[in-house]
Amino acid sequence: MSAVIGPHGTVVDATGHGHDEHHEHHGAPHGWRRWVYATNHKDIGTMYLVFAFTMFMVGGVLALVIRAELFQPGLQFVNPQLFNQLTTMHGLIMVFGAIMPAFVGFANWMVPLQIGAPDMAFARMNNLSFWLLIPAAVMLVSSFFLPGGAPAAGWTLYAPLTLQMGPSMDSGIFALHILGASSIMGSIIIIVTILNMRAPGMTLMKMPLFCWTWLITACLLIAVMPVLAGAITMTLTDRHFGTKGHETLVDRVVRLEKGKRIAALKNVTINEAMFQVHFSHRPLAPGVLILEAMASTRVVIV
Amino acid sequence: MRSLWLAAGRLALIPGTMLALPAWAVNDLAGGPAVNQFNLHPPASAIAEDQQWMHNFMLVICVLIFIVVFGVMFYSIVMHRKSKGARAANFHESTTVEIAWTVVPFIIVILMALPATRVVVAMKDTSSADLTVKATGIQWKWGYDYLKGEGEGIGFLSTLDPAQREMSNAGKPQGDDYLLKVDNPLVVPVDKKVRIITTANDVIHAFYVPSLGIQETALPGFVRDTWFRADKIGTYYGQCSQLCGKEHSYMPIQVKVVSQADYTAWVEGKKKEAKALADDPNKVWELAGLEERGQGVYAANCQVCHQPNGKGGNGVKPLDGSPVVLDPDKLKQIHVVLNGQNAMPPWKQALSDTDIASVITFTKNHWSNATGQLVQPAEVAAARK
User: Fold this and answer.
1) Domain containing B319 — which CATH number?
2) pLDDT by residue (tens digit) across B260-289?
3) Average pLDDT over every residue of B97-116
């Protein structure tokens, strides 16, 4: 008796399906598994776009409240601290929650189609990149409900104002760390896809501009996201562990008696025009530079 | 030629003034915002005039380029559309065109950059100033110290008028100088080069007076500068332009430019005032005296956040019935006022020992608090160490 051996060594009939094999290994997952375990660029792209649209609505509501308040002079709806929270969160949500994911969503949808690739590279990491956005967005938006309200330091999060914010600042920093990780992973995926998975004959010079712009953007993101991560980590340690990452304007502390005496060094470059101000043959530090060095040093003494 | 550019800018005002909005019963504020203001503030210094000229110059160039580019585009789209029988030209590239459309914009950019660079270099040149004033950004007021020139040694704080702050809370703004009036304006003589040195006490602020054409960030730990030479006598308004916390919108700048004679008289007056106000740090005060002084300090500095009834709110702690205020150990409250906590800024630089002692005594004996405690200025001075 002859038998047709199918996959996994099971006995199959002529149609190629095992008798008691279910169709688990054929056909895509359905229901929630389709989305949570997604690996194809179209589904992931769709998820990014739906997420971006939702965050656009949330950020938009914040903008509408700002506009309602600004319509007439005087405070009508919100107090000044809440107003600052609204402007900060509108900025952060729109940039990190709406614009960046929307563009990544377009990249996921369009790049493989435009370069003739079967899918994006690193399909499961692509999925992780998306799903990381959900807890990050929850942390960012729910910061309104933490004691003290959402961060109100402006979306540029300048120190030292960030040191005065409540726990929502830390939750926002954590959310930005996660968003940054997602961006970096997504950028790696895009670069590998564009450089490695173009169909034969699709040279870089034939590639549509959209792919080119995403190739460059992805390189920029990989360069810049770690810098942002470093800066917000500095903010975090400045807030909780007494570091002076955002305040260290001297280069070396030579002698320190905490609260009493300090001697520190501040490096400057000799070829700056300001040194010739008094005597052109004798470079001399101007008074304001000395004052500034003193002001910077006083931060360390406490 | 120059007046043509200025006129071009002013022409734009005409459609602006035709917009009729519901009247909030305000008028133009000289040196500040105008009703339905459409253009930049009227310049009160040569640099501000240059800035306005630059703005109009760039705007006209942009409009011309806009007309040319979109004109050609719309003409082509409309007059050469397919339904009219147009057929697309059949060529691929033209190196000549590519070179032309690189070189021409490059030249335009250089022509725009030349006058702009001249103005920026002039804006940066703060040398040979007649008067030097340090403007310190503090949460949430400005501190002015006259460092060099006539008036050296004068120093004072400049805070928003408290009545106007209340108006904001009530949602009932009034007056043409709403949220621009301060108690002690910066006074400078006309036609003298004034150098403004900016720094900050706590967070980043920015010193911005558009009529004079100046804006400079005020950073803690940094010393930056800018300068202006006011052409006309008058009062010019500006605001803090870097987010610095809750009351960022409530720390305006008022610069009063006066004649040289008036300035000399003002300097004399200020010096006399300073002598009279100098507090003896070792004076032993009575409760009634401290409470009265403290009430004034509270109204000018604390009630914005802690409210006139001492109940706080919106995250601000109440003082009425507060455990820190009622605590028999006075140092606890002194420490909080000197050094701040969380959103409350430190007051050790903004207020003197006598002011701090009086306001603490006031809070300890007002509303429902009746501790009978007295804080002497000497105790505050000791706590600073």
Assistant:
1) 1.10.760.10
2) 999 999 999 998 888 777 777 677 888 888
3) 96
Mean pLDDT (chain A, rounded)? 88
Give the gap in angstroms from C-alpha B297 to the nearest C-alpha of chain A: 22
Cβ–Cβ below 8 Å for B221 and A247: yes
A79/B243 Cβ within 8 A? no
Contact A84/B at CB under 8 A? yes
Residue of A65, A241, A49 lying closest to A144 (CA atoms): A65
H helical segments located in chain B = 2-11, 13-18, 46-79, 95-124, 162-170, 260-277, 287-297, 303-306, 323-326, 330-339, 353-364, 377-383
Could you report the per-residue pLDDT of A109-154, keeping only the tens digit for each?
999 999 999 999 999 999 999 999 999 999 999 999 999 999 999 9
A277 Cα to chain B: minimum distance (Å): 9
Homologous superfamily of domain range A39-240: Cytochrome c oxidase-like, subunit I domain (1.20.210.10)
* Shortest Cα distance, chain A CAs vs residue B312, angstroms: 13
Domain count, chain B: 3
The verdict on B270 and B342 lying in the same domain is: no
B282 found inside a domain = no
A119 contacts chain B (CB < 8 A): no
pLDDT of residue A185: 97
The whole-angstrom separation of Cα A163 and Cα A75 is 26
Side chain identity, residue B168: S
Instruction: Tell me the residues of chain B between 316 and 375 that have a Cβ less than 8 Å away from chain A.
Output: 342-343
ipTM confidence score: 0.77
